Hints:
Oligomer: heterodimer
Largest sheet of chain A: 3 strands, antiparallel
CATH architecture of the largest domain in chain B: 2-Layer Sandwich
Number of strands of chain B: 7
Order of helices and strands of chain A: EEEHHHHHEEHHHHHHEEEHHHH
CATH class of the largest domain in chain B: Alpha Beta
Helix content of chain A: 40-55%
Amino acid sequence: MDKTTVILGPFDVALEEPVYFKIEPNDDARTIKSVDMVNGFVHRGIESIVLQKNFLQNLIITEKVCALCSNNHPFTYCMAVEKIARIDVPMRAQYLRVLTDEIKRIASHLFNLGMLSHLIHDGALMRDFLETREAFQDLKERIWGNRMDLSANTIGGVKFDLDPTLITAIQTTLDQNEEAIKRFIERFEHDEMLIKRLKGVGVLPHEDALKLGVVGPVARASGVDNDVRKHAPYAAYASLDFKVILKQDGDVLSRALVRLYEIVESIALVRQVLNALPQGEIALHVKTIVPEGEAVSRTEAPRGELVYYLKSNGTRKPERMKWRVPTYMNWEALKIMMPNNTIEDVALIFNSIDPCISCTER
Amino acid sequence: MHILEKTLNDSLTAHNNPLRFTPHYDSLWCETDDQTLFLALAELLRRMEARVCMISAYAKDEAHELVYHFDCGGVMANVKVYVADRCVFSITPLFKSADWTERELSEIYGITLQNHPNPQRLFLDDSIDRSVLDEYYSLSSMMNGRVSETLWNKVKAQKEARHG
Lengths: 362, 164
């Protein structure tokens, strides 16, 4: 049979971000022999731009790196600044940072699962996922005044507080949607059609996951336990009780299940935050001049470990600022996941790493 | 963190490696300008099942500094390496997780990677010069924002009209 290299992309492979797949098929002309990816379409040089802005302006820039992880970027950046400036963030702010991150995680995971449903042409399931997500989008709008970029963090704390009305709104949203999450889990655990479609697709074995250093739900679905919230706790996570979700099969189904069970854990975390929310200040009033020094900080974004390096020379602007996003580590795993799967599953497997091209290329 | 610091420093001593880690904030730091010692340290970290989280590079005077960020059992072990000649040994043969971050620092700062298994450009097109962070490029000439020649010609025409 005549062999033709299949080109997918650069647009609309799974999401509306550009990446370009060059796929060499096997002799059967329907399964994948090897895959190469070309990227760099949205490299904007943001790491250079931040060196021209002061430390407060960079709060805005970092929030714009990515939409779905938009809270983690300024959050992790603030942690690095606070380390260099030796700022002890008030405990109430630490708890509020956890609350923000977990609500973002719930919405982000639901979006990824909605896209999964879209890619397997299950419109009803997609609608259910996105309707559930909409409740959390509405909640974000109510608390922070925005549905994506929340602008929750500032150097030395957070910019928002919760009053009894907002606390009730959060509790109501959790109560109203918890059953829906459990129903999703029930379907992904027992629906034969769904399991048949997703099980064994895009497998990343445990050894490869370790070797590649993959992070987030991609790692945990292959049995690699590297959740930053547990292994290098930050904010208030050390005081909160939650499980790291691990699966062993490393396929698309496992990655979906990890995200679903993580939503359950996130709901429990938000409830714990509301129950244990300390009284006190939400932010310290600090000067924006950061002393000379360097620091590394990291958080567990919805897609996995996000790392920031910050070096200050005592001026109002950073001397060097670098960050590494989860997709950056997970991308190479696609070369292990895709071979011998059908070409029609490229988008499904790609979506299962919850890719963010905008984040990765900066 | 202090347990890891002791474990690492004891292992370095046992291997006659003079490098030492010291705690700073919540992570460990170490500095060297000897790449052979750094490679020996990287081998030690590999045996301890560390992974490369990121490598931060920046120009310093006429040279470069590379900060290797390893996760070792939940603690960040940072190793700063001074590079005077724009040439560095790759650690990707030891850590597959270093692949992308090494290629990125190579394309941005023009640092040559020795013994890298796949030293291709990561993000930037081959037509763009090395060390691009040292130079100014307008965004529209650097990325696909320049949608078509038709649009670009209009932008250029307006610019020329404005500046005579």
